[in-house]
């Protein structure tokens, strides 16, 4: 099972201006650096919590048809855009939407309600395309925006690379802000 980003978010959940206000930076000479730490902080928050903050399209690739309810690995799941099963020549064949149910949200779930065609290839025979994310800047919860700002500030203030004497760390406040949005697995 692996994930491929098909369509990245069109915008970030925090503007450059908002982050500069948070950092108390008034000049424009570090805008490129601040933009870089903003993008890095958003991607780190998303990866750490298994989230997509802004709408983005993903492809989940599996070797076989899911035997039970499949939990999508990125939340919140907004829509299921399609599923395919590879035929014997490896060509993708669309799976009829009547063969599955989809539940959006935390987590997004997909369940077969009737048998799917079997893949004609041994590896990477099933693809599931879905859109995840809160959709708009206003829909992204404020604690997640705050986590991005705090992590971006941390990256901005600690610019040197990790090494033997210094390791990459995430401020505990960031983890505390992300905790309610992480999926717990029992």
Rg estimate, integer Å: 19 Å
At CATH level 3, the topology of the largest domain is: Hypothetical protein yqbg
Name of the top-level CATH class of the largest domain: Mainly Alpha
Q: How many helix segments?
A: 4
Q: Architecture of the largest domain, according to CATH? A: Orthogonal Bundle
Strand order of the largest sheet: 1-2-8-4-5
Secondary-structure element order, as H and E? Answer: EHHEEEEEEEHH
The percentage of residues in β strands lies in 15-25%
> What overall form do the CA principal axes indicate?
elongated
Structural class: alpha+beta
Q: Distance N terminus to C terminus?
A: 20 Å
Q: Please tell me the overall pLDDT.
A: 91
> What's the number of extended β-strand segments?
8
Into which percent range does the helicity of residues fall? 25-40%
What is the makeup of the main sheet?
Answer: 5 strands, antiparallel
Structure characteristics:
Hypothetical protein yqbg; elongated; single chain; alpha+beta; 4 helices; 2 domains; 5-stranded antiparallel β-sheet; 186 residues
List the helices and strands and how they pair.
Layout: E1 2-7, H1 16-23, H2 31-49, E2 56-62, E3 70-71, E4 77-86, E5 92-94, E6 100-103, E7 109-112, E8 126-132, H3 142-157, H4 172-178
Antiparallel strand pairs: 1-2, 2-8, 3-7, 4-5, 4-8, 6-7
